[in-house]
């Protein structure tokens, strides 16, 4: 079984809906890193030297490669990443090897057999 790592940088207000959508698309879980910061093409506005940026979360999904694209597209749609600038980005990275996922692999193998 091969895996992809989906890395999602999103506004913290959208984390829960992104998680729900990813689960509905086949993700079995995620790790969330709170209070990330980032900057896009244009710098964020400041007010008396204080930054006016929203908090971001980094959401990490380890998903089976056959499900990765549909999960990624679902995340983009629900997060409105392409339709609204500055809302977030999501990328996928090949995973060479992973341990500690035996329980997920059993569940995923049943899902993948049904999909294929």
Outline:
The protein has 116 residues and is an alpha+beta fold. The protein has helices spanning 15-25, 65-79, 102-115; strands at 3-11, 31-36, 46-47, 50-51, 56-64, 88-95. The chain is elongated.
Tell me about this structure.
With 116 residues, the protein is α+β, with helices and mostly antiparallel strands. The protein has one domain (3-115): Alpha-Beta Plaits (2-Layer Sandwich). It has three helices and six strands. The strands form two sheets. Strands 2-5-1-6 form a four-stranded antiparallel beta sheet, with helices on one face. Strands 3-4 form a two-stranded antiparallel sheet. The longest helix has 15 residues, at 65-79. The chain is elongated. The two termini are 14 Å apart. The model has no long low-confidence stretch (mean pLDDT 85).
Layout: helices, strands, pairs:
Elements: E1 3-11, H1 15-25, E2 31-36, E3 46-47, E4 50-51, E5 56-64, H2 65-79, E6 88-95, H3 102-115
Antiparallel strand pairs: 1-5, 1-6, 2-5, 3-4
Helix pairs in contact: 1-2
The separation of the N and C termini measures 14 Å
Number of domains: 1
What does the radius of gyration come to?
Answer: 16 Å
CATH class label: Alpha Beta
Strand order of the largest sheet: 2-5-1-6
Largest sheet: 4 strands, antiparallel
Number of helices: 3
β-sheet strand percentage: 25-35%
| Cα shape | elongated
Unreliable segments of 5+ consecutive residues: none
For the record, the CATH architecture stands as 2-Layer Sandwich
Report the helical percentage: 25-40%
Characteristic key phrases:
3 helices, alpha+beta, 6 strands, two-stranded antiparallel sheet, Alpha-Beta Plaits, 116 residues
